[in-house]
TrEMBL record:
Coiled coil: none annotated. This is Gfo/Idh/MocA family oxidoreductase. SUPFAM superfamilies: Glyceraldehyde-3-phosphate dehydrogenase-like, C-terminal domain, NAD(P)-binding Rossmann-fold domains. Residues 4-134 form the Gfo/Idh/MocA-like oxidoreductase N-terminal domain. InterPro entries: Gfo/Idh/MocA-like_OxRdtase_N (IPR000683), Gfo/Idh/MocA_oxidoreduct (IPR051317), GFO_IDH_MocA-like_dom (IPR055170), NAD(P)-bd_dom_sf (IPR036291). Residues 142-272 form the GFO/IDH/MocA-like oxidoreductase domain. It holds the Pfam family GFO_IDH_MocA_C3.
Length: 379
């Protein structure tokens, strides 16, 4: 298999998520990092590109310069990852899709549902791929949950409990720290803070494993620290189109909670429980039966979970491997795009522009419901 040419925008030196992308994309050896506009500061971005082994003629100071130069090359990029701050995602994704590139955009895909709908339409017209990095859906045991639910092991899904509650913005003394403050500033963060930033992963996971989408929601937003204009805690109830009720709690003030992403699904025939901080075990309780622990690496897991698992049972894999599964799916789809072959159907599980669109709809509906004292709001 020839390597796929890969470029990055954002994710420069010292960024939070840039290194995870580079580790994940490199894991299986499918992608070669050959171009990038890594930083808001052009000189720093070019110097960083050099340190990553990107040749000087493909180290760009600005994404527009990168778009123009890369569009003219014969050895075009097969994939462009966008790991810049949220407010830039729409403009950059749109420009690269319209120029015929495949895109993996960090979440959130856009700042509004209308922009996300446009990206969905542009993606369809372009025939290219637009993935959104809801990377936690790449965990093998999350894919196991999805496979078990699709297989009917739980029967009809009655209830989903999703949480992404951490405690890292709980210190009132820290509220003015610029890295914290912008997240609660409507001008920079939009209509929601902790739901849009953290809870949205739990929302995507609930939809991903259940195969359902929401029809309506009722939200209670609270700002519990200082004079924050946006919520630092939220409880949202959803009704899903397959009949499931979903209860989602997200918080940034839950002192003592670390990453805090958990997912429980309860059906007529049994229940599943998974925690991101202990991703190697999935708890499965059949109705009237004992709880069993399914281990990542067990040989009798679903083919989706086996495909997503890299190292032997009993050795922790973790988040970069989960993200690597998104890149593995994309490599499969992009190689099929190159050769005209059909991709492995299991590779189509990666989060797509439609998922980004549903997230933006949920954020807007939750913000409007919270303003109306939790009124049930249609999606
Ligand atoms: P960060 O501030 O740590 O890093 C952003 C990087 O982008 C910096 O290197 C900056 O110089 C660069 N940059 C900014 N504007 C740019 C521009 N116009 N052109 C080129 N480079 C530019 O941010 P972060 O925490 O790494 O977050 C980046 C994105 O990733 C955000 O959208 C965030 O929501 C998302 N994120 C996703 C996850 C996840 O689990 N999927 C986790 C963390 C962050």
């Amino acid at each position: 298999m020839t390597k796929l040419n890969w470029g990055m925008i954002g994710g420069g030196a010292g960024s939070q998520i840039g290194p995870t992308h580079r580790i994940s994309a490199g894991l299986d050896g499918h992608f070669l990092l050959c171009a990038g506009a890594f930083d808001i500061d052009p000189d720093r971005g070019k110097a960083f590109a050099g340190s990553l082994g990107v040749s000087a003629d493909r180290a760009y100071g600005d994404w527009r310069e990168m778009l123009a130069a890369e569009s003219a090359r014969d050895d075009r990029l097969d994939l462009v990852t966008i790991a810049t701050p949220n407010a830039t995602h729409y403009e950059i994704s749109r420009a690269f899709l319209e120029a015929g590139f495949n895109v993996l955009c960090e979440k959130p895909l856009t700042m509004t549902a209308n922009e996300a709908r446009e990206i969905v339409e542009i993606t369809k017209e372009s025939g290219k791929v637009c993935a959104v990095n809801y990377g936690y859906s790449g965990y093998p045991l999350v894919r196991q949950m999805r496979a078990m639910i699709a297989n009917g092991d739980l029967g009809k899904i009655r209830l989903i409990k999703a949480e992404f509650a951490h405690g890292f913005h709980a210190d009132a003394e820290e509220a003015d720290n610029p890295r914290v403050r912008w997240r609660y500033d409507p001008a920079q963060a939009g209509t929601s803070a902790v739901f849009a930033d953290a809870g949205i992963h739990a929302f995507h996971m609930a939809c991903f494993v259940s195969g359902q989408t929401p029809t309506e929601l009722s939200a209670d937003f609270a700002s519990l620290v200082g004079d924050r204009q946006l919520e630092d805690d939220a409880m949202i109830n959803f009704h899903f189109n397959g009949g499931a009720v979903c209860r989602l709690w997200t918080s940034a003030v839950a002192v003592g909670r670390m990453h805090g992403l958990t997912l429980q699904v309860f059906g007529e025939k049994g229940g599943l429980s998974w925690q991101q901080q202990h991703p190697e075990q999935l708890h499965w309780t059949p109705l009237n039966g004992r709880t069993q622990i399914l281990e990542r690496g067990d040989s009798d897991l679903s083919e989706q979970a086996v495909r997503a698992s890299r190292i032997p049972i009993g050795h922790a894999e973790g988040m970069p491997v989960a993200f690597a599964n998104i890149y593995m799916d994309l490599a499969d789809v992009l190689n099929a795009q190159r050769t005209g072959a059909k991709p492995d159907p299991m590779a189509l599980d990666f989060p797509q522009a439609e998922d980004g669109y549903w997230s933006m709809r949920a954020i807007e509906a939750a913000a409007s419901s919270a303003k109306a004292n939790g009124a049930w709001t249609k999606l």
